[in-house]
Amino acid sequence: MNDLINKMIQAQLMQRLLILLAISFGMTLTGCALNHGYSDMNEGLRGLAMESSPASMSSAKISNNADSQDRKLIKRSWLNIGVKDLAKAEADAKAIVEQKTGYIENTNDEQGKSFNLSIRIPQDQYATALVELREVGAVISENENVQDVTTEFIDNKARLDNLYKLRNRIQLLLDRADVIEDLLKIERELNRTQSEIDRLEGRMKYLKGQVDYASIEFSAKKQKTYGPLGYFFMGIWWGVEKLFVWDQ
User: Fold this and answer.
1) Is pTM beyond 0.90 here?
2) Could you tell me which residue ranges the DUF4349 domain spans (predicted)?
3) Domain extents for the chain?
């Protein structure tokens, strides 16, 4: 009888020991899975961040895209003319701008002497507008600057596409995270990504505005009107000058 009781007690102890071992093994596996999950989350954030970095983009691909697309050109001109009637010249210039569906950003008048118009003209009307503005008076000086921003335009667009995808994937990680430390880390990455998106969107908006509308700085100066004596002495001066200088 005693042997039977001892065997039953030993069986119960063995059963409890097996249960404890099973629980311990299960907790170990759970801890490993959690650690592996946090590690995957951290690696995921690092991988997502690398995807949106400039180094991850192919410069050759960007260059090929730039060659295959229409060029994005920012055009600026400075036109200085002489006129006899400032009021008429200003009215004529403004009428040309209005006819070309452009607009005037800024005006500056020096009463009785000169005026300046900062003009924005649609790109497709730019060349025609310049021709007509030259006819308002006698051209004194003219300069033009053309800046090609095609590569920057394509580069920024590609970065934005990557950042939009990155933002969506970070949002998915944020929805699945349930540990405060992970939530804070993911939110910081989401804010950083959104700030970069806002910066590039602002730059793209500026570039598009500059490309769509060319700039013309139009200045007119009142020409002097000489009387008979003025022309007489100017002729004398011209003759004296030719005695010393034949060719310049």
Assistant:
1) no
2) 71-228
3) 1-30, 71-224
